Amino acid sequence: MATIAEEPRLGALTPLPARVADRIRETGDTWTLELEVEAGAAPVIAPGQFMMVYAFGIGEVPISVSGPPNRPGPVVLTVRDVGAVSGAICRSEPGAVLGLRGPFGNAWPVDEAAGGDVVVVAGGIGLAPLRPVVLRAIERRNDYGSVSLLYGARTPDDLLYPVEREAWRDEIAVEVTVDAAGGDWTGRVGVVPKLVDAAEFRPETTTAFVCGPEIMMHFTVEALLARGVPAERIMLSMERDMRCGVGLCGHCQLGPTLICRDGPVYSFADLAPWLEVREL
Amino acid sequence: MRSLDDLLADVPLFEGLAPGRLSLLAGCAHNVHFEAGEQLFRKGDQADTFYVVRHGGVALETFVPAGGSIVIETLGAEEVVGWSWLFPPYRWHFDGRALDTVRATAFDAACLRRKCDDDPALGYELMGRFAQVVIDRLQSTRLRLLDIYGRGDDR
User: Which of A63, A179, A196, A244 has the highest number of chain B CBs within 10 A, making it the mutation to test binding with B?
Assistant: First the structure.
């Protein structure tokens, strides 16, 4: 784990204009945008990396990239409208221009998980940063043993990528649960960590990729550890309060690490000492 | 075909129970089958049975006037459906509906309570195991009460 004393990346603070090429409504408050960078080559983005997205005149927020990884092309972002900036981004119609900085951060070790089983556990909008993991695992399906996606959301209406998720079932196991549902819902109702108990994987060979609200990740980690998945191979994406994206401002400091620069992906083994410190 | 004793030995709820005790439980059990949409029980009915699901899913539901049915929780393979049989007045608190084809082991509650009365050690053992089921459900409910997917903010 790097320390905060390392040199920040000072050259990456200027947003580049990117035009909205497409905008798809995912749920009542969540949209997927495809952005084309106006000048220069399209960025190649590793799974798990994030962009700083600037709604001009309003503000800037970190958004994880949800598109296919490791290839040039439009920057795909799935954004939930939870405030002034994310709301403005969600309302950006095709043709609108947003500012982009990045990609920043490290990557999910998807390729490193080859040879073993893979469990992807997502909660709510947490599926967006994990979509590149799923796409990469499907792309290299023969390199892995079992691959499972365990996904939870608040209600059936809040579930992301419904059509694509069904198609994923041809390649991987997909289990979905929601916190609340009406009588017409024929899927599961319950919390995501419970899906871990019933999922089929060999714990000793498994790499788990987890993203969602921190409390969801906490209980998911407990369930994975109880199944015998090593703490070193439980990977979490932390998305705490990132502002500058380059390790300069210090807002996202967690113990000895700056999440925007050294993360957002960490193993639970690395994070465990800091997650229980109340002042952090 | 596997005997009920063998089937019960694989159920997490009964893991580690002595073979003699499994046979006692099996004496109160039989296998059942429900088609998708079929009701296992309805709120207020006599809770004279509990189930261990072997295959399929069961939705626990409650009816909200003018709101229709709401699914409280779904339970799947190897999970226990029902603890209303443990405590008076032995009435179901919710509706139970098969989400798909359900195969389960049904236990006659009166038979089981009688055996527990005759053998308090068995009763203590079973009560401890059901307490764990209740605790697990309580923890899940607490987590859902946190509304963890609720709206955050841009920071």
Answer: A179
